[in-house]
Amino acid sequence: FSLPALSLLLPPTTLAALADSWLREDCPGLNFAALAVRSARQAVDFTLKVEVECSSLQEAVHAAEAGADLVLLDNFKPEELHPIAQALKAQFPRVAVEASGGVTLSNISQFCGPHIDVISLGMLTQAAPALDFSLKLFAEGATPVPHSCRS
Ligand SMILES: *[C@@H]1O[C@H](CO)[C@@H](O)[C@H](O)[C@H]1NC(C)=O
């Protein structure tokens, strides 16, 4: 397959995710983080940022070396997240670090730290409560009866 060709059709995050799942299994020695960054850079112009989801410090370093703007550290426990973010920032202070996965409003403080730039909460959309409301239209001259007054 041609990842650069594919990258014309896909946003960088999708591309990185594809590179992750395909390449990690088939080519374990491949620097897929750098490949994802290069492919994304070919597909987008300079105004867009490239973020790579990484599952280790080594992958994060590969992504940063290849010019990623952001590194996403997803599903890390806080005690793993902060040392990795610190080590990455020591080498690449300009690369932003995003923490994600398992973050809720009650434990978000565990993900805050001096080396974390962005924290994303999937629960904002995935666990958002539904608001039950409706809009009724009445004919001109009709007297609306509130729902609670109907028999
Ligand atoms: C944060 O809270 C959620 C929901 O209770 C939980 O699934 C997750 O494991 C917690 N994360 C940490 C790091 O405590």
UniProtKB/TrEMBL annotation:
Where is each Quinolinate phosphoribosyl transferase C-terminal domain found? Answer: 36-136
Q: What is the residue range of the signal peptide feature?
A: 1-16
* Residue stretches in coiled coil: none
Q: Is Transport among this UniProt entry's keywords? A: no
The alphabetized UniProt keywords are: Glycosyltransferase, Signal, Transferase
The cellular component terms of Gene Ontology attached to this UniProt record, alphabetical and capped at eight, are: cytoplasm
Which Gene Ontology biological process is one annotated for this entry? quinolinate catabolic process
Q: What pathway does the annotation place this protein in?
A: Cofactor biosynthesis; NAD(+) biosynthesis
Q: Which domain of life is it from?
A: Eukaryota
Q: Show the GO MF annotations.
A: nicotinate-nucleotide diphosphorylase (carboxylating) activity
Keyword field contains Signal: yes
- Matching Gene3D superfamilies: Aldolase class I (3.20.20.70)
Similarity-based family: Belongs to the NadC/ModD family.
Q: Any idea what this protein is called? A: Quinolinate phosphoribosyltransferase
Taxonomic source organism:
Spermophilus dauricus (Daurian ground squirrel)
